[in-house]
Design a protein that fits this description.
alpha/beta
Length: about 525
């Protein structure tokens, strides 16, 4: 654990200061020398040298990690980031599964000849070094950045800076909770197997492989489900599913096949939890600080691993709680997290449900969606004849957007909690033109993309008057402006059923610059 704590800040700085591809190649070559030293440790039967090799392995892994995850946005298209994160996480846990298997398998077939068995590590290291040469070259993102070894102050500064980007600090912390929960599950599974299932320690160890298999499956599926964007809305839903599964381990602790199934699904929803978080950290982080943010996440991750060990000791040795009882308490803790996530990411949950669950049942056609980009922030402007237009926009637009919507009278104040939850800014129709620009400027200054839903009472009338008012409203806006048009043929503008029964067409135009 120590290298991931002590060298977290250093690894992030190196990843931003130099080409991430170069960092990957150097760490892969370094790994070859380290595992060769490991063979020597087995040959000499030297425990101190073995511990030193283990420390070096962890050190090169700590230096490798920010480059490994940070390079994805630099070498793949933005719409493919979630999918490749799913593949990366899935193959990482596949490696864990294979590594666990081969450790036992090689020890067995070589009759505990550890020197001979450890040559397998050299073969893997050679393959890793060779394949790293095939990664396309990347440029340094912050060539003038100073490399610092003051890891605690640097980590604090990184987390403080991450707070300025909506959801970024939260995702870093929630990602650490995933590793905390995973570490606790791995450590607690053997006592659970001994106490509840009457299995041996070795058999209990294989139970965790079921969770690892589930994480691999869930990670791959989460990447596919996210499609072209980052679906943070999956995270709160996955956390609540994990609660049910952890509770299930307590209530069905004596049933082997039920426990095995629960562990697989625990891994699957764990994959749904972590893939959007990893992808969001990469996408939301500024290029020059991406490595530092990944490194700060690693620091908190391994603090979570240490905390899991402490918690396991307290539950079992101090409070004399059963392993099944430990899973129950973890379920309660995760339940509190899930509820908090529902409030913090309420807009993302609603957007995810609209886009992935409800929207496929609409007769919907989207034109020009490739024109929408959110780096840097943009302003989308569209007409709104009813609240259903806002629903349609939320279903078709990806990720983090602030919506400014017209509302009749005091209705906005009576529904203020819902609007805050969904990050909707309601403005009364009578004062819309006078106050909307101020809200637009404020959100754009905070780095948020904004969707301005201008009130239109009659969609069939000519929009020349509306466009004239909009030009006045946007006279001082300097960000790219993307016009949006929604066409619905139903006369039942306020009926939710109209979304399922009539054709809907949403058109995104090409962006244009508004001069001061």
């Amino acid at each position: 654990m120590l290298p991931f704590l002590f060298f977290a800040s250093l690894s992030g700085s190196l990843s931003d200061r130099f080409s991430k591809r170069s960092v990957i190649v150097v760490t892969r070559i370094t790994e070859l020398f380290v595992v060769s030293l490991g063979v020597l440790a087995f040959f000499l039967e030297s425990a101190p040298l073995g511990y030193f090799v283990l420390f070096l392995m962890a050190t090169q892994s700590a230096l490798f990690s920010p480059a490994k995850y940070g390079i994805i946005p630099e070498i793949v298209k933005k719409e493919d980031i979630s999918r490749f994160n799913g593949i990366l996480t899935a193959t990482t846990y596949l490696a864990i599964i294979l590594g666990t298997f081969f450790a036992s398998f090689l020890t067995d077939i070589t009759e505990r000849n550890f020197v001979f068995a450890s040559f397998f590590c050299i073969v893997i290291a050679i393959l890793g070094a060779i394949t790293s040469l095939g990664i396309e070259k990347t440029l340094p993102q912050a060539a003038d950045k100073k490399v610092s070894a003051r890891f605690l102050s640097d980590i604090y500064r990184t987390l403080k800076r991450a707070k300025q980007v909506r959801y970024l600090l939260f995702t870093i912390i929630f990602g650490a909770y995933f590793l905390f929960l995973g570490a606790y599950t791995q450590l607690n599974i053997i006592p659970f197997a001994l106490q509840s299932l009457s299995l041996s320690e070795i058999q209990g160890g294989y139970l965790f492989l079921m969770t690892a298999i589930g994480i691999g499956i869930g990670s791959f599926l989460a990447g596919r489900l996210s499609g072209r964007g980052v679906e943070l809305g999956i995270v709160p839903i996955a956390s609540l599913a994990i609660v049910v599964l952890l509770m299930g381990l307590y209530f069905f602790q004596a049933h082997f096949f039920v426990v095995s199934t629960l562990l697989v699904f625990l891994g699957i929803f764990g994959g749904f939890f972590i893939v959007p978080i990893d992808a969001f950290i990469q996408v939301a982080s500024p290029n020059k600080n991406r490595g530092e943010n990944v490194a700060a996440a690693n620091f908190l991750n391994f603090l979570g691993v240490i905390l899991a060990s402490i918690l396991l000791f307290l539950f079992g040795n101090v409070f004399h709680l059963s392993a099944a009882g430990g899973f129950f308490l973890m379920g309660l803790l995760t339940c509190a997290l899930g509820i908090a996530l529902l409030f913090l990411m309420g807009d993302q949950v609603v957007r995810f449900l609209l886009a992935r669950v409800i929207c496929p049942f609409w007769n919907l056609k989207i034109i020009g969606q490739h024109n929408v980009s959110f780096t840097p922030p943009v302003l989308l402007v569209g007409e709104r004849s009813s609240w259903l237009d806002t629903v349609i926009m939320m279903a078709t637009l990806p990720r983090l957007i602030r919506y400014i919507v017209p509302i009749e009278g005091n209705y906005a104040r009576s529904r203020s909690f819902l609007y805050r939850l969904l990050y909707l800014t309601p403005i009364e129709r009578d004062v819309f033109l006078a106050t909307a620009l101020e809200e637009v400027r404020r959100e754009l200054d905070l780095g948020h993309s904004v969707c301005l839903m201008h009130p239109v009472l009659n969609l069939s009338k000519d929009l020349t008057e509306w466009r004239g008012k909009l030009d006045i409203l946007l006279a001082s806006v300097t960000v790219p402006v993307i016009p949006v048009h929604i066409m619905r043929t139903s006369e039942k503008k306020e009926k939710l059923s109209a979304l399922f029964s009539t054709p809907i067409k949403v058109s995104y135009g090409e962006s244009r610059k508004e001069s001061v």
